[in-house]
Amino acid sequence: MKLNKNKTAFGRHETFPLRYGWLTKGVEVIGKQKGIFQEREHETAMTELGLGRNMVNALHYWLHVTGLATFVGGDGSVSPLGKALLGKEGDPYLEDEATLWIVHWLIASNAEWATGFFWFFNHYSAPRFRDKDALQALEDFVAQELGLKRAHTTLKSDISTLLRMYSPVASRGGEEHLDSPLASLQLVNIDEGYGYNSLRTSRPFLPTVAMHFALQQRFAEHAGKHQNAKEAAIPVRDLLYGGSGWAAPGAIFRLNEDGLMTCLHQMMEDYPRMYELRDTAGVNQLYRLTPPQRPETVLANYYQHYKGEAA
Protein backbone atom coordinates (compact mmCIF):
# COMPACT_ATOMS: atom_id res chain seq x y z
CA MET A 1 0.00 0.00 0.00
CA LYS A 2 1.44 3.33 -1.03
CA LEU A 3 2.09 6.06 1.52
CA ASN A 4 -0.48 8.86 1.30
CA LYS A 5 -0.17 11.77 3.74
CA ASN A 6 -3.95 12.18 3.63
CA LYS A 7 -4.51 8.63 4.87
CA THR A 8 -2.43 7.88 7.95
CA ALA A 9 -2.97 6.30 11.35
CA PHE A 10 -0.83 6.36 14.47
CA GLY A 11 -1.32 4.87 17.92
CA ARG A 12 -4.51 2.94 17.19
CA HIS A 13 -3.23 -0.21 18.95
CA GLU A 14 -4.00 1.03 22.48
CA THR A 15 -0.26 0.39 23.19
CA PHE A 16 -0.81 -3.39 23.01
CA PRO A 17 1.54 -5.33 20.70
CA LEU A 18 0.11 -8.23 18.74
CA ARG A 19 0.11 -11.43 20.83
CA TYR A 20 0.15 -15.11 20.03
CA GLY A 21 -3.35 -16.42 19.41
CA TRP A 22 -4.98 -13.03 19.02
CA LEU A 23 -5.50 -13.10 15.26
CA THR A 24 -6.76 -16.68 15.28
CA LYS A 25 -9.16 -15.91 18.13
CA GLY A 26 -10.39 -12.83 16.33
CA VAL A 27 -11.01 -14.70 13.09
CA GLU A 28 -12.85 -17.43 14.97
CA VAL A 29 -15.18 -15.15 16.92
CA ILE A 30 -16.02 -12.97 13.92
CA GLY A 31 -16.94 -16.12 12.04
CA LYS A 32 -19.48 -16.90 14.78
CA GLN A 33 -20.71 -13.37 15.58
CA LYS A 34 -20.01 -10.66 13.03
CA GLY A 35 -20.99 -7.80 15.34
CA ILE A 36 -18.86 -8.84 18.30
CA PHE A 37 -16.47 -5.90 17.95
CA GLN A 38 -19.24 -3.32 18.07
CA GLU A 39 -19.20 -1.10 21.14
CA ARG A 40 -22.44 -2.53 22.51
CA GLU A 41 -20.94 -6.04 22.36
CA HIS A 42 -17.75 -5.24 24.25
CA GLU A 43 -18.75 -7.23 27.32
CA THR A 44 -19.46 -10.26 25.14
CA ALA A 45 -16.15 -9.80 23.28
CA MET A 46 -14.24 -9.56 26.55
CA THR A 47 -15.80 -12.81 27.73
CA GLU A 48 -15.39 -14.69 24.44
CA LEU A 49 -11.81 -13.58 23.93
CA GLY A 50 -10.67 -13.51 27.54
CA LEU A 51 -9.32 -10.00 27.06
CA GLY A 52 -9.76 -6.64 28.72
CA ARG A 53 -11.60 -3.81 26.97
CA ASN A 54 -8.49 -2.07 25.66
CA MET A 55 -7.06 -5.38 24.46
CA VAL A 56 -10.29 -6.05 22.55
CA ASN A 57 -9.85 -2.69 20.84
CA ALA A 58 -6.25 -3.56 20.04
CA LEU A 59 -7.21 -6.92 18.53
CA HIS A 60 -9.87 -5.18 16.45
CA TYR A 61 -7.14 -2.88 15.16
CA TRP A 62 -4.65 -5.67 14.34
CA LEU A 63 -7.33 -7.62 12.47
CA HIS A 64 -8.03 -4.50 10.44
CA VAL A 65 -4.36 -3.70 9.78
CA THR A 66 -3.52 -7.20 8.57
CA GLY A 67 -6.63 -7.36 6.39
CA LEU A 68 -7.65 -10.69 7.92
CA ALA A 69 -11.07 -9.21 8.64
CA THR A 70 -13.07 -6.37 7.14
CA PHE A 71 -15.47 -4.13 9.04
CA VAL A 72 -18.49 -2.34 7.61
CA GLY A 73 -20.86 -0.43 9.85
CA GLY A 74 -19.35 -2.10 12.91
CA ASP A 75 -19.94 -5.63 11.62
CA GLY A 76 -16.92 -7.76 10.85
CA SER A 77 -16.39 -10.52 8.35
CA VAL A 78 -13.42 -12.78 7.83
CA SER A 79 -11.71 -11.84 4.58
CA PRO A 80 -10.65 -14.40 1.96
CA LEU A 81 -7.09 -13.62 3.11
CA GLY A 82 -8.06 -14.35 6.72
CA LYS A 83 -9.60 -17.68 5.77
CA ALA A 84 -6.59 -18.67 3.68
CA LEU A 85 -4.04 -17.68 6.33
CA LEU A 86 -5.72 -18.75 9.58
CA GLY A 87 -8.60 -20.98 8.49
CA LYS A 88 -8.59 -24.75 8.83
CA GLU A 89 -6.79 -25.09 5.49
CA GLY A 90 -4.19 -22.48 6.50
CA ASP A 91 -1.99 -22.15 9.58
CA PRO A 92 -4.25 -21.16 12.51
CA TYR A 93 -1.65 -22.09 15.14
CA LEU A 94 1.24 -20.23 13.50
CA GLU A 95 3.25 -23.44 13.19
CA ASP A 96 4.95 -22.40 9.97
CA GLU A 97 7.43 -19.55 10.27
CA ALA A 98 6.36 -18.30 6.84
CA THR A 99 3.03 -17.30 8.38
CA LEU A 100 4.78 -14.88 10.75
CA TRP A 101 6.78 -13.32 7.92
CA ILE A 102 3.57 -12.80 5.98
CA VAL A 103 1.81 -11.25 8.99
CA HIS A 104 4.83 -8.97 9.39
CA TRP A 105 4.61 -7.94 5.74
CA LEU A 106 0.87 -7.22 6.07
CA ILE A 107 1.52 -4.88 9.00
CA ALA A 108 4.70 -3.17 7.83
CA SER A 109 3.41 -2.58 4.29
CA ASN A 110 0.16 -0.96 5.47
CA ALA A 111 0.99 2.73 5.18
CA GLU A 112 -2.62 3.77 5.75
CA TRP A 113 -3.43 1.96 8.99
CA ALA A 114 0.01 1.36 10.51
CA THR A 115 1.90 4.42 9.34
CA GLY A 116 4.48 4.37 12.13
CA PHE A 117 5.32 0.72 11.45
CA PHE A 118 5.47 1.39 7.70
CA TRP A 119 7.84 4.30 8.34
CA PHE A 120 10.14 2.26 10.58
CA PHE A 121 10.64 -0.63 8.19
CA ASN A 122 10.57 1.32 4.91
CA HIS A 123 12.18 4.65 5.81
CA TYR A 124 14.18 4.42 9.03
CA SER A 125 17.66 3.30 8.06
CA ALA A 126 19.65 3.63 11.30
CA PRO A 127 21.11 0.17 11.97
CA ARG A 128 21.59 1.00 15.69
CA PHE A 129 19.46 3.40 17.67
CA ARG A 130 17.90 4.29 20.99
CA ASP A 131 14.15 4.51 21.38
CA LYS A 132 14.42 8.30 21.76
CA ASP A 133 16.36 8.48 18.46
CA ALA A 134 13.66 6.56 16.61
CA LEU A 135 10.95 8.73 18.16
CA GLN A 136 12.70 11.93 17.12
CA ALA A 137 13.15 10.60 13.59
CA LEU A 138 9.47 9.64 13.39
CA GLU A 139 8.42 13.07 14.64
CA ASP A 140 10.64 14.72 12.04
CA PHE A 141 9.20 12.51 9.29
CA VAL A 142 5.62 13.24 10.26
CA ALA A 143 6.20 17.00 10.46
CA GLN A 144 8.57 17.49 7.53
CA GLU A 145 7.73 14.74 5.04
CA LEU A 146 4.02 14.32 5.72
CA GLY A 147 3.34 17.88 6.83
CA LEU A 148 1.18 16.63 9.70
CA LYS A 149 0.84 17.40 13.38
CA ARG A 150 0.57 14.42 15.70
CA ALA A 151 0.82 14.36 19.48
CA HIS A 152 4.17 13.41 20.98
CA THR A 153 2.47 10.78 23.15
CA THR A 154 0.77 9.19 20.13
CA LEU A 155 4.01 8.79 18.19
CA LYS A 156 5.83 7.64 21.31
CA SER A 157 3.25 4.87 21.74
CA ASP A 158 3.93 3.68 18.19
CA ILE A 159 7.68 3.42 18.80
CA SER A 160 7.23 1.78 22.20
CA THR A 161 4.70 -0.75 20.89
CA LEU A 162 6.80 -1.57 17.84
CA LEU A 163 9.91 -2.21 19.92
CA ARG A 164 8.03 -4.44 22.34
CA MET A 165 6.40 -6.32 19.48
CA TYR A 166 9.60 -7.03 17.55
CA SER A 167 12.40 -7.15 20.11
CA PRO A 168 12.91 -10.69 21.50
CA VAL A 169 14.54 -9.50 24.73
CA ALA A 170 12.23 -6.56 25.31
CA SER A 171 9.23 -8.84 24.85
CA ARG A 172 10.34 -10.79 27.93
CA GLY A 173 10.69 -7.70 30.07
CA GLY A 174 7.22 -7.86 31.50
CA GLU A 175 4.02 -9.87 31.50
CA GLU A 176 2.12 -7.50 29.23
CA HIS A 177 4.30 -8.31 26.22
CA LEU A 178 5.52 -11.76 27.08
CA ASP A 179 4.33 -13.49 23.93
CA SER A 180 4.63 -11.30 20.85
CA PRO A 181 4.88 -13.69 17.88
CA LEU A 182 6.86 -11.36 15.62
CA ALA A 183 9.75 -11.16 18.09
CA SER A 184 10.97 -14.54 16.85
CA LEU A 185 11.79 -13.00 13.44
CA GLN A 186 14.64 -11.07 15.11
CA LEU A 187 14.12 -7.99 12.96
CA VAL A 188 14.79 -5.79 16.00
CA ASN A 189 17.20 -6.80 18.75
CA ILE A 190 18.63 -5.37 21.93
CA ASP A 191 22.07 -3.84 21.32
CA GLU A 192 23.83 -4.19 24.65
CA GLY A 193 25.20 -0.93 25.94
CA TYR A 194 23.47 1.15 23.30
CA GLY A 195 19.80 0.46 22.69
CA TYR A 196 18.47 -1.49 19.74
CA ASN A 197 19.61 -2.64 16.34
CA SER A 198 17.67 -3.52 13.21
CA LEU A 199 20.24 -4.75 10.72
CA ARG A 200 19.99 -5.62 7.08
CA THR A 201 21.47 -9.09 6.63
CA SER A 202 21.30 -11.96 4.14
CA ARG A 203 18.59 -13.87 6.08
CA PRO A 204 19.09 -17.15 4.16
CA PHE A 205 16.19 -18.78 5.99
CA LEU A 206 13.56 -16.26 4.85
CA PRO A 207 10.77 -18.40 3.34
CA THR A 208 10.48 -17.67 -0.36
CA VAL A 209 6.68 -17.78 -0.12
CA ALA A 210 6.85 -14.61 2.01
CA MET A 211 8.75 -12.81 -0.75
CA HIS A 212 6.41 -14.27 -3.39
CA PHE A 213 3.36 -13.12 -1.42
CA ALA A 214 4.81 -9.63 -0.93
CA LEU A 215 5.73 -9.30 -4.59
CA GLN A 216 2.33 -10.41 -5.82
CA GLN A 217 0.74 -7.68 -3.71
CA ARG A 218 3.43 -5.17 -4.68
CA PHE A 219 3.09 -5.85 -8.39
CA ALA A 220 -0.70 -5.61 -8.25
CA GLU A 221 -0.56 -2.24 -6.50
CA HIS A 222 2.44 -0.84 -8.39
CA ALA A 223 1.07 -1.79 -11.80
CA GLY A 224 -2.12 0.20 -11.22
CA LYS A 225 -4.25 0.30 -14.32
CA HIS A 226 -1.80 -2.02 -16.08
CA GLN A 227 -2.00 -4.78 -13.47
CA ASN A 228 -3.78 -7.17 -15.83
CA ALA A 229 -1.04 -6.90 -18.42
CA LYS A 230 0.97 -10.06 -18.91
CA GLU A 231 4.26 -8.43 -17.97
CA ALA A 232 5.22 -5.75 -15.47
CA ALA A 233 8.53 -4.77 -13.92
CA ILE A 234 9.88 -3.16 -10.77
CA PRO A 235 13.51 -2.00 -10.44
CA VAL A 236 15.44 -4.16 -7.98
CA ARG A 237 16.60 -0.97 -6.29
CA ASP A 238 12.95 -0.13 -5.51
CA LEU A 239 12.44 -3.60 -4.05
CA LEU A 240 15.47 -3.02 -1.84
CA TYR A 241 14.93 0.59 -0.77
CA GLY A 242 11.42 1.54 -1.86
CA GLY A 243 10.43 4.29 -4.22
CA SER A 244 7.72 6.95 -4.44
CA GLY A 245 6.06 5.80 -1.26
CA TRP A 246 5.75 2.11 -2.10
CA ALA A 247 6.52 -0.64 0.41
CA ALA A 248 9.86 -2.35 -0.25
CA PRO A 249 10.10 -6.10 0.48
CA GLY A 250 13.86 -5.83 0.90
CA ALA A 251 13.49 -3.13 3.55
CA ILE A 252 10.57 -4.75 5.34
CA PHE A 253 12.34 -8.10 5.52
CA ARG A 254 15.59 -6.30 6.48
CA LEU A 255 17.60 -7.80 3.63
CA ASN A 256 20.90 -6.48 2.35
CA GLU A 257 21.51 -6.45 -1.40
CA ASP A 258 23.09 -9.91 -1.50
CA GLY A 259 20.29 -11.30 0.63
CA LEU A 260 17.61 -9.84 -1.63
CA MET A 261 19.23 -11.17 -4.78
CA THR A 262 19.72 -14.62 -3.25
CA CYS A 263 16.08 -14.69 -2.15
CA LEU A 264 14.86 -13.58 -5.58
CA HIS A 265 16.88 -16.26 -7.35
CA GLN A 266 15.63 -18.94 -4.95
CA MET A 267 12.07 -17.70 -5.38
CA MET A 268 12.36 -17.95 -9.16
CA GLU A 269 13.41 -21.57 -8.74
CA ASP A 270 10.49 -22.26 -6.39
CA TYR A 271 8.00 -20.42 -8.63
CA PRO A 272 9.23 -21.12 -12.17
CA ARG A 273 8.01 -19.12 -15.16
CA MET A 274 6.50 -16.45 -12.92
CA TYR A 275 9.43 -14.02 -12.60
CA GLU A 276 12.53 -13.00 -14.50
CA LEU A 277 15.45 -10.68 -13.75
CA ARG A 278 16.60 -8.52 -16.65
CA ASP A 279 19.01 -5.67 -17.13
CA THR A 280 17.04 -3.10 -19.13
CA ALA A 281 18.88 0.03 -20.23
CA GLY A 282 21.31 -0.43 -17.36
CA VAL A 283 18.56 -0.93 -14.77
CA ASN A 284 18.26 -4.32 -13.09
CA GLN A 285 14.54 -5.11 -12.94
CA LEU A 286 12.34 -7.95 -11.75
CA TYR A 287 9.62 -8.82 -14.24
CA ARG A 288 6.51 -10.79 -13.48
CA LEU A 289 5.54 -12.96 -16.42
CA THR A 290 1.96 -13.74 -15.41
CA PRO A 291 -0.93 -11.67 -14.05
CA PRO A 292 -0.66 -11.21 -10.25
CA GLN A 293 -2.23 -13.89 -8.12
CA ARG A 294 -4.75 -13.06 -5.42
CA PRO A 295 -3.16 -13.22 -1.93
CA GLU A 296 -5.48 -16.02 -0.83
CA THR A 297 -4.47 -18.06 -3.88
CA VAL A 298 -0.78 -17.72 -3.01
CA LEU A 299 -1.51 -18.92 0.52
CA ALA A 300 -3.87 -21.73 -0.48
CA ASN A 301 -1.27 -23.16 -2.86
CA TYR A 302 1.48 -22.86 -0.28
CA TYR A 303 -0.35 -24.39 2.69
CA GLN A 304 -1.69 -27.22 0.55
CA HIS A 305 1.90 -28.09 -0.38
CA TYR A 306 3.20 -27.46 3.18
CA LYS A 307 0.60 -29.72 4.77
CA GLY A 308 1.11 -32.34 2.08
CA GLU A 309 4.82 -32.48 2.94
CA ALA A 310 4.07 -32.66 6.66
CA ALA A 311 1.61 -35.54 6.26
From TrEMBL:
InterPro entries xrefs: DUF4007
Ranges for domain DUF4007: 10-303
Pfam families referenced in this protein's UniProt entry, alphabetically: DUF4007 (PF13182)
Name of the protein: DUF4007 family protein
Source taxonomy: Bacteria, Pseudomonadati, Pseudomonadota, Gammaproteobacteria, Thiotrichales
